Amino acid sequence: MQSAVFHFKPHGAMMSEDSLLDDALVRLDEAAAHLSIDPDVIEKLKYARETTKVRLMIRMDDGSRKSFLAWRCRYDDTRGPTKGGIRFHPDATADEVETLAFWMTFKCAVMNLPYGGGKGAVQVDPRQLSKAEIERLSRAYIQAFARTVGPDRDIPAPDMGTDEQVMAWMMDTYSQQHGHAVPAVVTGKPIELGGSPGRKEATGRGLVYLIREAARHIGLPLQGATVAIQGFGNVGSNAAHFVQQLGARVVAVSDVSTGLYAPDGLDLGDLRHHTELHRVLRGYPRAERISNEELLEIDCDILIPAALENQITAENAERLRCKMVAEGANGPTSLEADQILAERDIFVLPDVLGNAGGVTVSYFEWVQGMQNWIWTLEEVNRRLEQVLVDAFNRSMARAERDNIDLRAAALIEGIERVTGAMLSRGLFP
């Protein structure tokens, strides 16, 4: 396996126009306007500390060599080591990685976790690779970013297209380089390697904890409520399972292959069995086929976008027919769409709260790894619920007090913690 550093962008480099990060920075400025903060502090938050781009060269099963672009961004480490997943996706870009690392900075701060924000990606379709090729790619990634990652510096985790097995290969590669086991270098590992009980389902479980709180707030009974979920990967499938346990009825789901609709409710057990056999929803016979676009406009009580960013836009926000949007994905709602949903009185549970369950239990896993300690599943879930509900209540109280939406309120919570830490440390140089 070979890798070569292709490009390095230091703190302060300019972003491209019309990027995802540009939209994120608009939200930052809008939230910061509610606070009396030194403009120099806000300026510092507008740029990633470092983004490294490499080209990974691996040997394919047929003996040929193929290269893949890869990135790792450490956005801000004021409050602690940077933390964020690694995604394998054919449409991954540097801008996406930096934007997600930006949001991770504030997501960790809102949850009061001692982390900064990070993110990584490889531009690849993992469905086109064999297991052996994915292993070589995973090991090449951690070799390439050996200077960047570390249990006290930058801690990766699974994301789209990666899983606990990928994390195991990465942990093993890093450990071999250091001559001893370093389980805390990644989170989302198998239990046998120091992974935490409850980590795999934490994002979906945490999202449903917050859906429950938000539903109480807006007076929406969950018993019999209808739910549509865009994305049936780890987050979407677990959210479907847990929201059904609360009495809701999942009427529509989708993945990259197709969408499915059943007005009387989908058989989630049967659906999960189908995806275990075929990996995708395509071919499932006991539901009407719909597109991902149609799913977003299904008449339902709760819409859960749990796929990619920028799915709810100015073009389709007027056609949504739900009472709540619960963001399981990162950045699924555009700036313009946010305004439209607010005008239509559709409650938005923002991603900075909604999908924070994963990083919260990742923190628990990291703590267990650093202490060589094991928590029970019951303890993990109890702590997760407490952290998320506390964050929701703090943000909701601020939103009502200041007459702002929940996304802005949560972001302000995060900004206050990050900027407070910056000022305590001092702006140097």
Succession of helices and strands: EHHEEEHEHEHHEHEEHEHEEHEHHHH
Main pleated-sheet profile: 7 strands, mixed
Task: Evaluate the radius of gyration.
Answer: 21 Å
Low-confidence stretches: 1-17
Structural class comes to alpha/beta
Strand order of the largest sheet: 10-9-8-7-11-12-13
**Outline type:** globular
- How many DSSP H or I helices? 14
| Overall structural domain count | 2
CATH topology of the largest domain: Rossmann fold
Helix content: 40-55%
How many E-type strands?
13
Assign the CATH architecture of the largest domain.
3-Layer(aba) Sandwich
CATH class of the largest domain: Alpha Beta
Could you write a compact summary of the structure shown?
The chain has 2 domains: 2-193, Rossmann fold, CATH 3.40.50; 202-349, NAD(P)-binding Rossmann-like Domain (Rossmann fold).
Task: Please characterize this protein's 3D structure.
- It is a single chain.
- With 429 residues, the protein is α/β, with parallel strands linked by helices.
- The protein folds into two domains: 192 residues, Leucine Dehydrogenase, chain A, domain 1 (Rossmann fold, 3-Layer(aba) Sandwich); 148 residues, Rossmann fold (3-Layer(aba) Sandwich), CATH 3.40.50.
- The chain is 43% helix and 18% strand.
- The protein is built from 14 helices and 13 strands.
- It has a seven-stranded mixed sheet with strand order 10-9-8-7-11-12-13, sandwiched between helices. A six-stranded mixed sheet has the order 1-2-3-5-4-6.
- Helix 6 packs across helix 7, helix 12 crosses helix 13 and helix 13 crosses helix 14.
- The radius of gyration is 21 Å and the shape is globular.
- The N terminus is likely disordered.
